[in-house]
Each structure stands twice: as structure tokens, then as C-alpha cells.
UniProtKB/TrEMBL annotation:
Residues 10-190 form the Formyl transferase N-terminal domain. This is Phosphoribosylglycinamide formyltransferase. SUPFAM superfamilies: Formyltransferase. It is an enzyme of class 2 (transferase). (6R)-10-formyltetrahydrofolate binds at residues 66, 110. CDD domains: FMT_core_GART. Pathway: Purine metabolism; IMP biosynthesis via de novo pathway; N(2)-formyl-N(1)-(5-phospho-D-ribosyl)glycinamide from N(1)-(5-phospho-D-ribosyl)glycinamide (10-formyl THF route): step 1/1. It comes from Salinimicrobium tongyeongense. It catalyses: N(1)-(5-phospho-beta-D-ribosyl)glycinamide + (6R)-10-formyltetrahydrofolate = N(2)-formyl-N(1)-(5-phospho-beta-D-ribosyl)glycinamide + (6S)-5,6,7,8-tetrahydrofolate + H(+). The active site is at residue 112. The keyword Hydrolase does not apply.
Length: 200
């Protein structure tokens, strides 16, 4: 029994609203390992590219609406059945409901494309963040991976990585630098959370 438990793959569920480059990267990273797997991708946007990506990669792709996540508990019920070890918000733009957070304490994480607490909060997502950073002529930016609580971008920090911004960098250049950091670090941070080293 113990042996079976030890070798059972850990389960990851992803929530995403749009493109899904992070979701795809996480899915393929763990498809190359036999330690964990993404078992489902949930999106609030029926036409989100992330659902196509999940489907193409053989991962269950589910769409839900406001009623299902905020009122009827349908999303909560599905999650309870799936019983994931980690819920990953990868470009998910709705506030994550308290009832799900309560059910999965310390098991919901988010990635944000800036060095929180700067450039966080409602309305600060995707290109809006990069534009604001460009306008302020910041000399560095980065990514933040943190636990989720009931406020946008405020839970306990898990990991940050920074990148320099040159004066001539455009908003698009900043976006690309962030994309590279996310691709490099996000799956590894997830792996470290699922399989902490003995002294962590
Ligand atoms: C990512 O850059 C992520 O950090 C950001 O949305 C992008 C999603 O890209 N998240 C936020 O802004 C959350 N406030 P993707 O759909 O290609 O993974």
C-alpha cells in the first residue's frame, strides 16, 4: 500500500483564461516525467486557446461559467472528485473563490508577470503589466509565483526571478523576457512544491 502511494503520480490541475503558453509548458514538462501529470485544464473562456492546447496534448479541457464557479459549487465538486495535489493559476483572470481555497489550503498557486508587490492587483494582467512597467521606465522586472488568497496577487511569495530592462526595450521586448523566465522556472517551481527536498 505504502509502495503504491509512493509511486502514484501527483496530480496538477490548471486554471487559465487565454493563450495557455504556460499551461502547455507545464503539461509537456510533466509528460516527460513519470512523477506528476496535469490531469485537467479549466477555463472560464470557451474560446481560449488554452483549451485547444490541452485537448491536443490529451489533457481534459473544461469550460465553466460564473454560476459554476461562484454559485453552484459545480467547479468545487469536480475538483473534490479530482483531488489534485496542486492547483495552478496560469494566466487565470477571475478572482479565485474562497470556498475552493478553503477546501485546498496551501495548494493553489499563481504566476504574476511582475515583481510583486509592485504592479499587482485587479486589472494588472498580461500586457497591461508590461505597458505600465515600460511607461515607468523600470530598469528591471520579473516573475512572481505565490500562494493564492482571496485578494488579487497577495498570497505568500514562493519564488521570484528578475530580468534587466534596457532603455531601448519595447513593451514587446519586456513581454518576451517575461515569457522566457516563465517558461524556464514555472514547471520547476511546481516540481519543487510537489517534491520538496528534505531540508525545505
Ligand atoms: C502570463 O504572463 C502570466 O504571468 C500572466 O498572464 C500570462 C498568461 O500567458 N498572468 C497574469 O497577468 C495574472 N495577473 P499564457 O496564457 O500564455 O500562459
Amino acid at each position: 500500500m505504502q509502495t503504491q502511494e509512493k509511486f502514484r503520480k501527483k496530480k496538477i490541475v490548471i486554471f487559465a483564461s487565454g493563450n495557455g503558453s504556460n499551461a502547455e509548458n507545464i503539461i509537456t514538462y510533466f509528460q516527460q516525467k513519470n512523477t506528476a501529470e496535469v490531469i485537467a485544464v479549466f477555463s472560464n473562456n470557451r474560446r481560449a486557446k488554452v483549451l485547444e492546447r490541452a485537448h491536443r496534448l490529451g489533457v481534459k479541457a473544461l469550460h465553466f461559467d460564473r454560476e459554476a464557479i461562484y454559485q453552484s459549487n459545480e467547479v468545487l465538486r469536480l475538483l473534490k472528485d479530482m483531488n489534485p495535489n496542486l492547483i495552478v493559476l496560469a494566466g487565470f483572470l477571475w478572482i479565485f473563490p474562497t470556498n475552493i481555497l478553503k477546501q485546498f489550503p496551501n495548494k493553489v498557486i499563481n504566476i504574476h508577470p511582475a515583481l510583486l508587490p509592485k504592479y499587482g492587483g485587479k486589472g494588472m494582467y498580461g500586457m497591461h503589466v508590461h505597458k505600465a512597467i515600460h511607461e515607468k521606465k523600470e530598469v528591471e522586472t520579473g516573475i512572481s509565483i505565490h500562494y493564492v488568497n482571496e485578494h488579487y496577487d497577495e498570497g505568500k511569495m514562493i519564488f521570484q526571478a528578475t530580468t534587466a530592462i534596457k532603455p531601448e526595450d519595447s513593451v514587446q521586448d519586456i513581454a518576451e523576457k517575461i515569457h522566457e523566465l516563465e517558461q524556464e522556472h514555472f514547471p520547476k517551481v511546481i516540481e519543487n512544491l510537489l517534491f520538496p527536498l528534505p531540508n525545505e
